[in-house]
């Protein structure tokens, strides 16, 4: 047989299609994190974390990747503006809601300052985050969401501090408050209006645009806002048009169509007398999770450069036809900014296989010892490619009969156990035959998946990967080592929650489609087997919940060095048991006291000794301070 090659592993897991150049494989069969001038094996980082006392699971953030994505976005727009001859500039803002973690926002503010990359905020806490994090004068803050007077007051403080802070009017009730606060502070506001787009887009989040969109003004409400500003002598404060087609838009044609519609609104607001200077096209830049480059909710049919050129060229062409000066271009790319920079790493704790136990020479005596099993044993005599469907049907029929006999007490547990083992043996032999057939019978298409191994991973799906459970999101998943060996097992993944939904049984296949199983290596005794879930930097951390009271994982932020080493920039220990209990209104100190009282009562009643009580208290207290995940 041909020896397994690293290139085959790269093709099998599609790493060169979805990684955007940020991950690869080295000659030792390890997944590496890559930037333009360095490469570090993830296994080396895992071992470094273990030496620092940080056990799996770990959320790994790679600062270089976050920085590189910010550069790519800004430089791609800069290049598109130069290529198309657009007569203005690009200003990017990061929507804090996509990942509000301090490590992320601080890095974006720090590295993005060279581009004056700002923030989009949708609440008072997010606006406070922006004010405390941004430092560069003139940094842009786009205020979306439902705004009360306190929110608007903070925005006026931002303007006084030198930030370019736009209040985007999303509901008619906000504008009077902005006007009133403006009078109070004696500061002219920077006002934007969000319009309800009618252009239709594909993808999962297409309902964020259109007539039924939660936020945005209808054309009637927009005219009312213009008339109110005219009456107050403040129409010149209206300078920004905001539109949002949707998130994770897979089709570039939809984006171009939406831009044309937005330009029409912009032109007519100018005609109404507004002093328009900015057009904010919202989010929508998609991530190609599968690497298929298709018009699909999990993919996209365009690259970053095509996205930027499509927007810039459409804006220029449309505005030139209206003889209108080109406005500043603003986009709110969040997913595409942060998704690549985070990887969830976890170890495999156990494996369940669906293979028969070894059948010894006793099998020949089964019909005599267990006459009820004779029909099932006979299937082995006619199991061949020509009768494969018949064998499959017979095996299921006889197994059902034997299970019914067990319920009625006609056979014992040992007999049923042997019957189940024979059934598995037949199914596995059928699977082996299926691999040799040109056409698989329809009834048997899902057989291989039904016999796949279950690999139990040390993580909580609901805490770390909630979009898999909630919206069937696909994330690239693969081993981070041993890729110089052929993966010979087909598996599904289960987490360690006691919930049947805590599983992953939909994966990206080598062609960018989907598969119900994931190729993996058989675990080795006394050796950890590590898997990585990639592109998880957007939304997953903040949406996670405390299912089974599994808390936040450890978080490690690293910076890769040119010499192949790495620096641990920050490490945040995951939640302890005491932490998560306090989140759900328990008082850990009071719980310790109650347990101590229970143990002391047991001493008084003579059920345990005082020294046993002390040992119980030590275990209880240590568990309170321990990690919520499995610890070796």
Average the pLDDT over all residues and give the rounded result.
Answer: 93
Largest sheet: 10 strands, mixed
Radius of gyration: 30 Å
How many angstroms separate the termini? 38 Å
* Record field, number of beta strands: 23
Level-1 CATH class name of the domain at 63-340:
Alpha Beta
Class by SSE composition = alpha/beta
- Contiguous low-pLDDT stretches (5 residues minimum) are none
Report helical residue fraction: 40-55%
CATH topology of the domain at 63-340: TIM Barrel
Shape type: globular
Top keywords for this entry?
10-stranded mixed β-sheet, TIM Barrel
Structure description:
The protein has 632 residues and is α/β, with parallel strands linked by helices. Among the domains are: 63-340, TIM Barrel (Alpha-Beta Barrel), CATH 3.20.20.10; 361-448, Methane Monooxygenase Hydroxylase, Chain G, domain 1; 588-625. 40% of the residues lie in helices and 17% in strands. It has 23 helices and 23 strands. Strands 4, 13, 14, 15, 16, 17, 20, 21, 22 and 23 form a ten-stranded mixed beta sheet that branches. The chain has an eight-stranded parallel β-barrel with strand order 5-6-7-8-9-10-11-12, surrounded by seven helices. The chain has a three-stranded antiparallel beta sheet with strand order 1-2-3. Helix 10 links the parallel strand 10 and strand 11. Helix 15 (388-407) packs antiparallel against helix 16 (413-434). The radius of gyration is 30 Å and the shape is globular. The two termini are 38 Å apart. The mean pLDDT is 93.
Short description:
With 632 residues, the chain is α/β, with parallel strands linked by helices.
């Amino acid at each position: 047989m041909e020896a397994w090659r690293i290139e085959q592993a790269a093709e099998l897991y599609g790493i060169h299609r979805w990684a955007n150049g940020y991950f690869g494989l080295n000659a030792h069969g390890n997944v590496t994190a890559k930037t333009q001038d360095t490469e570090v094996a993830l296994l080396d980082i895992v071992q470094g974390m273990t030496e620092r006392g940080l056990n799996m699971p770990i959320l790994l953030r790679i600062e270089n990747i976050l920085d590189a994505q910010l550069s790519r976005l800004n430089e791609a727009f800069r290049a598109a503006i130069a290529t198309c001859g657009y007569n203005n500039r690009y200003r990017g803002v990061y929507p804090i809601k996509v990942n509000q973690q301090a490590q992320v926002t601080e890095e974006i503010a720090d590295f993005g300052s060279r581009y004056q990359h700002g923030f989009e905020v949708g609440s008072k806490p997010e606006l406070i985050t922006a004010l405390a994090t941004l430092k560069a004068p003139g940094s842009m803050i786009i205020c979306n969401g439902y705004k009360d007077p306190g929110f608007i007051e903070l925005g006026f403080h931002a303007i006084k501090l030198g930030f370019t802070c736009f209040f985007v009017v999303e509901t008619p009730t906000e504008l009077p408050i902005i006007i009133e606060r403006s009078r109070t502070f004696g500061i002219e506001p920077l006002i934007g209006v969000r319009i309800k787009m009618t252009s239709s887009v594909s993808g999962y989040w297409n309902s964020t645009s259109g007539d039924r969109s939660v936020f945005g003004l209808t054309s009637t409400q927009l005219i009312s806002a213009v008339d109110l500003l005219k009456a107050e002598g403040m129409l010149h404060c209206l300078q920004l048009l905001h539109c949002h087609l949707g998130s994770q838009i897979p089709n570039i044609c939809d984006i171009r169509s939406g831009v044309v519609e937005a330009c029409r609104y912009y032109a007519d607001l100018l005609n109404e007398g507004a002093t328009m200077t900015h057009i904010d096209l919202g989010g929508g830049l998609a991530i190609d999770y599968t690497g298929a480059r298709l018009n699909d909710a999990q993919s996209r049919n365009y690259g970053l450069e095509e996205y930027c050129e499509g927007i810039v060229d459409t804006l220029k062409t449309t505005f030139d036809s209206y003889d209108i000066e080109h406005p500043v271009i603003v986009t709110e790319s969040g997913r595409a900014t942060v998704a690549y920079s985070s990887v969830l790493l976890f170890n495999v704790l156990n494996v369940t296989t669906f293979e028969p136990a070894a059948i010894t020479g006793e099998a020949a005596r089964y019909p005599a010892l267990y006459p009820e099993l004779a029909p099932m044993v006979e299937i082995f005599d006619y199991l061949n490619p020509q009768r494969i469907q018949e064998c499959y049907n017979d095996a299921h029929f006889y197994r059902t009969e034997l299970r019914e006999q067990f319920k009625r007490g006609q056979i014992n547990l040992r007999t049923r156990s042997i019957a189940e083992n024979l059934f598995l043996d037949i199914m596995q032999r059928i699977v082996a035959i299926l691999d040799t057939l040109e056409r698989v019978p329809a009834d048997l298409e899902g057989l291989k998946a039904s016999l796949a191994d279950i690999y139990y991973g040390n993580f909580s799906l609901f805490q770390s990967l909630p979009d898999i459970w909630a919206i069937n999101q696909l994330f690239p998943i693969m081993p981070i080592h041993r890729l110089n060996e052929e993966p010979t097992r087909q598996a599904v993944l289960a987490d360690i929650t006691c919930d049947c939904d805590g599983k992953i049984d939909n994966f990206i296949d080598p062609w960018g489609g989907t598969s119900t199983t994931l190729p993996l290596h058989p675990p080795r005794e006394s050796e950890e087997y590590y898997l990585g879930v990639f592109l998880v930097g957007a939304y997953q951390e903040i949406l996670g919940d405390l299912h089974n009271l599994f808390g936040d994982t450890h978080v490690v932020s690293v910076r890769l060095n040119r010499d192949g080493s790495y620096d641990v920039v920050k490490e945040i220990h995951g939640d302890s048991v005491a932490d998560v209990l306090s989140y759900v209104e328990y008082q850990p100190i009071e719980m310790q006291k109650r347990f101590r009282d229970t143990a002391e009562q047991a001493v008084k009643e003579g059920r345990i000794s005082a020294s046993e009580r002390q040992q119980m208290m030590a275990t209880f207290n240590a568990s309170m301070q321990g990690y919520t995940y499995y610890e070796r």
